Amino acid sequence: MKIDIQAKTFVLTKTLKKHTEQKVKTSLFACSSQLKKVIIRLSDINRVKGGKDKLCHIQVIPTHTSRPDVIINSTEKDMYKAIDKAAYLLAS
Hints:
Radius of gyration: 13 Å
Number of strands: 4
Oligomer: single chain
Helix content: 25-40%
């Protein structure tokens, strides 16, 4: 399973990247052999305006093309919380 993490509208720190990888790998551990790729896009929607605007968008692409992609979106005031929530939803 390949994991692709990108940040839009802000710089992706090593700490945030590591946190994201760890959360997603843990959430998908049981089915990782059935997954081709996980695409994660992190963005700050309103930038300086503040508010509940940190978005974690996760797209999970299975190895079998007959199965649909799974897409999870989570928006929170804090990026770490948005990632944690999205990872939790993946594991559900």
